């Protein structure tokens, strides 16, 4: 197969008889329950889906330029078959209406890690050969390569994916009864049961992986009770390390995962946290795919707990800005020493250290200032909602993304336009209210209307000033670090600008 592109759209709700379907309480926060209405039903049928699908709850998985090669060797050869699977690009796009995120996952690149146009994001090489002894029928060698990953995780999106795949695994359980004649008889019928009944009426207890091409699921079971039938992985290599840059946005606390976990998930905020999946090289062999997955997870989790917690915690709240500041101070003193040890050019080291210090401290100052301004703006917006007369000024929706002008010039221009248009709108609103009240109640009414509008009129310029300042600071930050502007374009939905 060559240059195959796949798009998998994962919707909320259900296409089938799910009018009475109710998810457990963990899904109530997502607002991904089926939307049942006559108009939605007609529109859904025109598009080819059922009336209970929730189009506002959607994630898209894009696999671009998939290539797959399967080779079969002669019977007298040592090798049995060889498979090569490559995917040039993988993206998960966040289309939930409650999320501001654009790309949930994609390949990470920057000035330090430039993206190579010829490289594949995922490469898997799988070789099955005859064993040296008769203890088993086949042995395999597996090699995996993955490019750096960037993740922007919204809590709602994460919970939606978690619930979706949990439902799929529940339906794959042998304890479920797959009776296709009684799909919609129970009010608590789960959303994917009818799909699985139709397509996989005899699904096994666990995923199955074939030893001959790897994408078939016909022969090898990961949980076969007979060890002689399990595929023995003679060698497994994952190389190189897989860097992951992570942002996370918590929204609401849910105690269903436990008190501590619920607080961390709901209140947690990560900005530019970094971790990596370390390189693995298993030469001793692993029996069965389940043990191979367990080996990978154990190695990564142990390494993260021992060596990487500081990198992850460095992205909690404003900590990333302080890490940048301390890194700049460290470089100011350490780079001259390192350069002197390398080639004796201490002046070159002083120049490099001063440049790193100035860039890091400037970025830290801009980031912290922008956070402070955003906090003031949020408080001012809440205050505006409280003091605004009903039906006026208060918008009721303060959700927004951070200002992201490409450079300082655009940031200043945006700030000027915001202030100009905002002040004109505030003044015209004051005149409109005074005129309307004067027509209704005369001079007393006009005076009363003006007095009623004074609190929101005083707060509104503060909001405009903070938003304008945020644009200027954002423009200066993006001019110093163009990568931040590009990442923000990838991260946030453009219709929110």
How does this structure look, described?
With 497 residues, the protein is an alpha+beta fold. It has 3 domains: 66-313, no CATH class; 319-371; 387-496. The chain is 44% helix and 21% strand. The chain is built from 9 helices and 12 strands. Strands 1, 2, 3, 4, 5, 6, 7, 8, 9, 10, 11 and 12 form a 12-stranded mixed β-sheet that branches. Helix 6 (319-343) packs antiparallel against helix 7 (346-387) and helix 7 packs across helix 8. The protein starts with a strand and ends in a 6-residue tail after the last helix. The model is unreliable at 18-29, 33-39, 176-217, 219-225 and 393-399 (pLDDT under 50).
Short description:
The chain is of the alpha+beta class.
Keywords:
alpha+beta, 3 domains, twelve-stranded mixed sheet, 9 helices, 12 strands
Topology:
Blueprint: E1 4-13, H1 38-47, E2 53-72, E3 79-94, E4 103-107, E5 122-129, E6 139-146, E7 149-154, H2 155-171, H3 193-199, E8 232-238, E9 242-249, H4 259-267, E10 269-277, E11 280-282, E12 286-287, H5 289-313, H6 319-343, H7 346-387, H8 408-480, H9 482-491
Parallel strand pairs: 6-8, 7-9
Antiparallel strand pairs: 1-2, 2-3, 3-4, 3-5, 4-7, 5-6, 8-11, 8-12, 9-10
Helix pairs in contact: 6-7, 7-8, 8-9
Q: Spans with pLDDT under 50 lasting ≥5 residues?
A: 18-29, 33-39, 176-217, 219-225, 393-399
Number of DSSP strands? 12
Number of domain modules: 3
Molecular shape: globular
Number of helices: 9
